[in-house]
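Researcher: Go.
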Amino acid sequence: MIRIDKVKKRSIADKIGLKKGMHLISIDDKEINDPLDLKFFEIGESIRIKILDKKETHIYDIKKGEEEPIGIESKEFEIRLCENNCIFCFVDQNPPLARESLLIKDDDYRMSFLYGNYLSLTNFKEEDFKRIIEMKLSPLYISVHTTNPRKRIEMMRNKKAGEIMAQLKRLCDGGIKLHTQIVLLPGVNDGEILNETLEDLLSLDLLESIGIVPVGLTSFRSNLPEIKNPTPKWMEGVIRLVEPYQEELVRKKKKRIIYLADEFYIKTNNPIPPLSFYDDFPQLENGIGLTRKFLDGLELLDVPLFDGEVLLVTGILAYESVQKLEFRFKEAGVKAEVVSFKNRYFGETVEVAPLLGGWDLLGLLYNYQAEFVILPPDIVNDEGLFIDGCSLSILENNLKKKIIVAPYDVVQLGNLR
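Model: Structure:
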């Protein structure tokens, strides 16, 4: 059973008197153990639910629309953890004394279906495949990296990792669509190995997309395997390897399916591809296509008016893009300056803006005179904490400036008016 954490107002659950703190035992005698069970078994025009209220059980017969939810939410979810020991795992590269939440390695198909988290399939059991296919948990997001069995075992340091193609085929045979990811390491799973991986993945009937991202390396890799740092020359080679596949896929399937991380284009001084290049942006949550979304959004932005100077904060990678936002501000008569900072928390090789530490920003921004500071999207979590544990309120109170975290869609900046 699951605990009811929230009852939506005016929902079926609200109307029959369900309250936060009660427990949902079953639907049509099917035991409910997590939010996925709830989402699957509440479908139907006529259902019977069993509720535990303190020590008493109650039965409710409900008539409703086929797809209409009953209106309860539960946060109970024991996350299944990763069993791999990947040579490139970013979690293993955290600074000493990093927040405990940053050390959690989830590898849970429920999180993949619900939130788009990537999973490796190495911890799968027979009942997992059966449940996914029975409940049609589609699409799923899979970290593949390579389909070469020997190389995948080597990279993930898990003997089960070599079964990946058989697992992917089984999911496709069960009607499950797949979004896949390749973290690319120079001299490890690139070149001919990457060719093999792409050919294998493109043979899958229900493959929706392949996202290729360069490995991220921090300054904290002591006692970890040596990995070469991605260079612009290497990235240029990856672009050239992938382009023929993309062109053929557009001819045959009217979409590219394979998408490279924005970093490949930025670091090699190649133009960011146009909006049409990314089709329906299937890898946007992976950061692929964000730069194009940002640049196109600038043209639609209704610049908010500020009664003071504005600092636009970013990391090294996005500096030139955010300069265009600075230009839009100045064009509208707003005094603005873009400032980019090297990452002190993870090291200078980490150049993405959301991983800038709050304590570092506190010191770096202290001597700037601007009245307003606009930070990158996703730089703090739901609790208002930066990656290093510093809080947004600490930054604002100490800097004596108005701090704004930019929305995910730059057009929404106009709502600050």
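Model: The first helix runs from residue 12 to 15.
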